[in-house]
Amino acid sequence: MKAEKDIFGERFARHYDELKWLYMELYNDETRFGELCGNLRGIFDARKESLKALDARREADPEWFRGSGLLGMMMYVGQFAGNLKGVAEHLDYVKACGVNYLHLMPLMESPAGKSDGGYAVADFRKVQKELGTVEDLEELADRCHGQGISLCLDFVMNHTSEDHEWARRARAGEKEYQDRYFFYDSWEIPMQFEKTVPQVFPTTAPGNFTWLPDVGKHVMTSFYPYQWDLNYANPVVFNEMVYNYLFLANLGIDVIRLDAVPYIWKELGTTCRNLPQVHTLVRMMRMIGEVVCPGTLLLGEVVMEPVKVAPYFGTVEKPECHMLYNVTTMATVWHTVATQDVRLLRKQLDAVYSLPQEYTFLNYLRCHDDIGWGLDYDTLAEWGMQQVPHKQFLNDFFTGRLEDSPSRGELYNNDPITRDARFCGTTASMCGVEKAGFCGDEHGMERAVRLDVMLHAFILFQAGIPVIYSGDEVGQVNDYTYKDDPEKRLDSRYIHRGAFQWNLVKNIDRSGTVQETLFHALRRLETLREEHEAFGVHAKAATGENGDDGVLILRRTGEKETLVGIFNFSRERKEIPWTENGTDLLSGDHIGSDGKVWLRPYDFVWGILDPDRSGAEEEASVLSGKSKTE
Ligand code: GLC
């Protein structure tokens, strides 16, 4: 009999030295390392053959997630379809949206009333009762795979719920479990931490520690008081959390979203954000994934300023996350809508386009969280926009307090002392659909939908994975009912986490409705994106300038074609000088022959240049921006 190839052994051998080196550097604990390695083999052996086959296919095509063919959507299981079985039944709608990457918001067991939208996990291996069972989840993953859909799930690794078994045993006084968190007898050390650690939720959950009167100790809680930070300096925590991560992978989850990953290592005298040990931990998780489940991807949730984000990709030789959120571009897009000034967005894109092509971003307009206005304030200051008043302007604009603003939404964590606040609302409400609908303003509605489509066109013009927030494809507006729910009332993020409005879906094929316009416009763009190779990561992406700061000009040069995107972020009609010959991808009209392109307010053009001009970007053209490899 031919000996079976030891795939695990081969992969393990490839990473063993580095893995051991990093583990020992952090923990210096041979016993725990041995235990980890032994368990990895067991977890690999338990992995289903179908998933091992998927691993092999993806290993053979490591670029599988980097083309222009992936389209993501994120959704709450309960809000979309009641439970996991409901999602399985509605996969036809997901497919109709063109989606082949589905991010299901946290669904593991989480105590009602103290759940932080599912981000306070009480059991990493049990699904919330009302959403179904682990078996339902596994079945859904199988079904998704059968239909070519990859599934993404959160792995909330920074903390557990105070209801998690470890937390309960810690609370009951078991030292072994207290050591898995940060417990302190007195205020002395917490007080030192408070001197250097900023607050995540300054108004809804001030401070980074919670006093537990029944235990007589303080526990570290960077987020809500019921979310206890895990202590990754303890190797037991790392090992056990690795097993939990691999549990998800073995259910068939394709993309593991590492929630709040910059926070996972704490050190006195620091901000406890993005510390070098965080990168060691993520690198170890990446190697472990490559050994046990190489078809699975790590998606880092790094909501930080740009210089802090890119390091989470690691290096080309020693990669960490496969993908990261393009959070700064997202926030900068909304800043651009409010200011009608594309300069910062152009600068931000130049920075993104200069990164190595291996770096894959998730591009999005809205997600389940607030918008934190993490902008490049040094640059804005050079242009006369100071941080505090500018944030206030943005919040005034998007809450609809300014006269020329069509937006509706609410502040989040509004701090009256620092006057700092973030913002919540759906894409459609921010674009003006809610206001125009309320006022019966037909012209306003037309404009709002045009802005909504243009912003999606901008996102879809970027490489990486575009992710639609469920409901945005049908222009779903803010949901104010969270205010009636005592458990949600203080967290305005629920304004954009409303129940999916299936009645809007009915309008998709009703002529003249907002849903018809929006849904089909997005589908058209998504299909074009899929068809054109220059939307992939290997195309050269560049920004251009034509002296008008209301208009953003982008260019993507692939092997076979050059695409141009012209986006009018201003509320005025624009005449853009344009001499390059090409074709408007949407209308099929010729562009360039009369030396200009006309754009209505918030309109855009996606064009393909005539083949003889492709790649000739050094020629005299209106594009004078830097050309970079994305
Ligand atoms: C992430 C989530 C957010 C949650 C936090 C704490 O930032 O996106 O919704 O509140 O982590 O888990």
Please give a structural write-up.
The structure is a single chain. With 630 residues, the chain is of the alpha/beta class. It has 4 domains: 1-157 and 233-325, TIM Barrel (Alpha-Beta Barrel); 159-229, Oligo-1,6-glucosidase, domain 2 (Alpha-Beta Complex); 345-505, Alpha-Beta Barrel (TIM Barrel); 539-609, Golgi alpha-mannosidase II (Immunoglobulin-like), CATH 2.60.40. It is 37% helix and 17% strand. The chain contains 22 helices and 26 strands. The strands form 7 sheets. An 8-stranded parallel beta barrel has the order 1-2-5-11-12-13-14-17, surrounded by 4 helices. β8 (209-212) and β9 form a beta hairpin. α1 (7-27) runs antiparallel to α2, α1 packs antiparallel against α12 (276-292) and α2 runs parallel beside α11. It is globular. It starts with 6 loop residues before the first helix and ends with a strand. The structure holds alpha-D-glucopyranose. Alpha-D-glucopyranose binds at residues 116-117, 119, 156, 223, 259-260, 301, 368-369.
Helices and strands in order:
Elements (H helix, E strand, L loop, with lengths): L6 H21 L2 H17 L2 H12 L11 E4 L1 H5 L2 H6 L1 H6 L4 E4 L3 E2 L13 E5 L6 H13 L3 E6 L3 E3 L3 H7 L3 H4 L4 E2 L3 H9 L12 E4 L4 E4 L6 E3 L5 H17 L3 E4 L17 H17 L4 E4 L5 H4 L13 E3 L1 H13 L3 H11 L6 E5 L12 H6 L4 H12 L11 E6 L4 E5 L2 H5 L1 H7 L2 H19 L4 E5 L32 H4 L8 H18 L8 E5 L6 E7 L4 E7 L5 E4 L4 E3 L5 E2 L4 E4 L4 E6 L17 E3 L1
Helix pairs in contact: 1-2, 1-12, 2-11, 14-15, 19-20, 20-22
This protein binds alpha-D-glucopyranose.
